[in-house]
From TrEMBL:
GO molecular function: guanyl-nucleotide exchange factor activity; small GTPase binding
Protein name: UDENN domain-containing protein
Residues in UDENN domain copies: 1-81
């Protein structure tokens, strides 16, 4: 899991820039009742910002329910407590940005997962 998380963090490090937040006049209930008809993520711009090698995977992945849930949870976090998995994902993105700067260059090759042992220690304590 840790290796997948690390790779997804690298691939989606800038996803927040493409999430289309509802207007400030929209409340949570309005958004929930209309979200199926709203565009919540700028897919075309996101894909145009990605390395060519990632496009076959990303163009399909951003159409999945898993990705839609990520975007929905990100939008909902403006009104409710952040979902725990999203909190972990966003924290890892912040760590990546802290390490490489705000303009994280997307790695075209695999970068070794360095957080595996830390996560394993936390799991062992359970």
């Amino acid at each position: 899991r840790e290796i997948f998380l690390t790779r997804f963090v690298h691939i989606f490090a800038s996803y927040e820039h493409f999430v289309i937040q509802p207007s400030q006049s929209t409340d949570r209930e309005q958004w929930l009742s209309n979200r199926e008809s709203m565009q919540n993520f700028d897919k075309a711009t996101f894909l145009s910002d990605q390395p060519q090698q990632h496009l076959p995977f990303l163009s399909r992945f951003i159409e999945t329910q898993m990705f839609a849930t990520l975007v929905d949870n990100k939008i909902l976090s403006a009104w409710v407590k952040v979902e725990p998995h999203l909190r972990v994902f966003d924290r890892r993105i912040k760590q990546l940005r802290k390490r490489y700067g705000e303009n994280v260059a997307r790695s075209l090759c695999y970068e070794r997962c360095t957080s595996y042992h830390d996560s394993q220690r936390l799991l062992d304590k359970r």
